[in-house]
Amino acid sequence: MSAPVRVGLIGLGTVGQGVVNILRKNAEEIARRIGRTMVVTHAAARDLKKKRDCNLDGITIASDPMFIARDADVDVVVEVIGGLSPARELILAALARGKPVVTANKALLAEDGNRIFAAARDKGVMLAFEAAVGGGIPVIKAIREGLAANQIESLAGIINGTCNYILTQMTEREVDFAKALAEAQKLGYAEADPRMDVEGIDAAHKLTILASIAFGMPLSFKQVATEGITEVRIQDIALAHELGYRIKHLGIAKRTAAGVELRTQPTLIPEDRLLAKVDGVLNSVLIRGNAMGQVGLYGRGAGAEPTASAVVADLVDVARSLGAPAQHQVPALAFQFDQLRELRITPLAEIISSFYLRLRVADTPGVLKGITSILAESDISIEAILQKEPREDDATIAIITSQVTEQRFNDALSKLRALPFVREGLSRFRVEHFNE
Amino acid sequence: MSAPVRVGLIGLGTVGQGVVNILRKNAEEIARRIGRTMVVTHAAARDLKKKRDCNLDGITIASDPMFIARDADVDVVVEVIGGLSPARELILAALARGKPVVTANKALLAEDGNRIFAAARDKGVMLAFEAAVGGGIPVIKAIREGLAANQIESLAGIINGTCNYILTQMTEREVDFAKALAEAQKLGYAEADPRMDVEGIDAAHKLTILASIAFGMPLSFKQVATEGITEVRIQDIALAHELGYRIKHLGIAKRTAAGVELRTQPTLIPEDRLLAKVDGVLNSVLIRGNAMGQVGLYGRGAGAEPTASAVVADLVDVARSLGAPAQHQVPALAFQFDQLRELRITPLAEIISSFYLRLRVADTPGVLKGITSILAESDISIEAILQKEPREDDATIAIITSQVTEQRFNDALSKLRALPFVREGLSRFRVEHFNE
Lengths: 436, 436
Prior knowledge:
homodimer; 436 residues; alpha/beta; Rossmann fold; Dihydrodipicolinate Reductase, domain 2; Alpha-Beta Plaits; 3 domains; 11-stranded mixed sheet; 14 helices; 17 strands; 36% helix; elongated
């Protein structure tokens, strides 16, 4: 066998420790795959005194991560510190020295990836990021390589485990959002500051990356219509269930004649779809290609070992590419860098879908007639409607509409809101059917 | 861009036509991925006069497939005629000339793959076979590359769409096996001679390939314990449902301290597992790695376009590898060829699992006592038991046992069979729980 592949590891948090552990635990198996051993020779961490849950024997510990990026004699650099800076500067420094990089940093790639991927291309080295989306689920590889024969038409993913855990708890145990969030925080499934997750930003980061490799377009994070789960009420989940749907927080990227839709939002899915049945902290991505039809993947989308599993899989790919000219590499964003194309992002107002609408109305005669008249005037059909028995003097009505643009739906909604018997407390979410 | 990648296509059946169609339909997208165009320049078919559902313009049609394998000026050969011979000779001839090969031929690879992969290795060229298992689902790539950080512990797959379709019909519409099979044949989901599918042989071929890339062992088709779905009765499906299970035909490969289990068989799965919810002609594979935990894939496992989607994805991989030394290639069987290791195959008698058992007994006193005594004497616990109200003078009892070796279970079964009140008509299937 040739000399070992030397890994420089920047970050010794949970994922970094997971990388060290996997490379030790599965050392023999990995060597049998690559034909060489692979060892972490250098590692950098902020707090050198912190106790780690991994064996650091034989690893040179550096306090300055830039030393690993720039100077250390390593074949590949792993960045698992997260955040925009200094991760950006470290990755760019490593690439500038011609070192391939493996990262799990979805925020950085989504927000600043165009520059970073250009830097990797300029040096002809790999920048691998399977761990950035879906933890250990090989979803990047599936889209970029496994479905390379296809024009990808759409993808939809449960790509934030925190949101999925909270919605699952709200669904199964009928606890409200605040309580489910508090429990998720206690279990370590949500951060102390949960906004990145529950407001859909983390999902938008991941969606940005998926859309780029699916459609061959530059990373367009700023154009993602980002909505979280804070507006979902138990009542919506219950009404959706009565109508035959589950509410999931999805990242959706869809290519139509009008452009590319990029959105993260709570979405009603028919209960019999497999995607609707992916519960708890699991992640899942459903991809539709024009040759393959739909293909789905699911598994653990977060956690030290699943994420490290993806990092090390990337390391195996990188190890094979060492010394190979760029034309033998899989392009980082699935398409040759000079073949990426800006695509029009469809504004929300133009996006067509069914909608779910919950109305709280006064319990007076003529209510249904008033509502259905406005929808009919707006040329919106009602696919399903459910009126619950009035409580006190309020009644709840839930409606699933036909396919309609958001603009037309919003216009109708304004008119509905102006009706004297319609009270506050309206919820509205999109409905996606995922028909084969 | 450089010169086009020239594809020689052996076989113009449904999959071959699908390959031609995808390469035309998605030509621009594929060129943007590879940085070169890819065109079928030669094709061979048995019946040259047959009308094809694809555009053959610009393709040189040969009546002799060996011309394409051996002499035609192509960069890569696609074999989609199926069967053992002449596919074997054609692939070996192409490899001998240093031409990489893409094939969907699971039977050939499972039965004669060790020789064929050795030939590819000797010439340092790729032999790609994503289409051999799971149609367009990139399951080979997921195991071989996406989970490369892991020791794969087990995999379980719904890998025969015919069996899954029939069992789904039996479950949902309560039709018996013969009727469901006849309908599947009518719809083209089953062959006129259905034995390869319903007797589990096709699943065993696919399982052989999956086990090899999962565990780094040579292909061991002859050692797969192969059982089909012909013994499954509607009554079993109904009883399983009452006990909280679905019956699926699975290919299972599992590594334990005792060896490797290789088996295809009808299996009870808890109803809430996603694998239990994969219905109709869909395929699905669930893989467990020691870092990742469980990851699942599902999608269309057969049909012209899904299968051709996998063939063309392989062609894209091959196109990137053209001219690259072998150390830059992903090894065909996931591990370096010289690192494949024979592993002990666990004999059925030693395999441990829960069992489902259906007994038809006389409606007389002491029956349950007699049965439970024998199981207790054999040190087999009862996890669940269900006795249906007697019909005429027969009663049906269904039992889920604790984990037990097949040997011990069989010994107990012999004793049960010898009981005077136990009548004919026993069913027994394994139960797998797939706990996270």
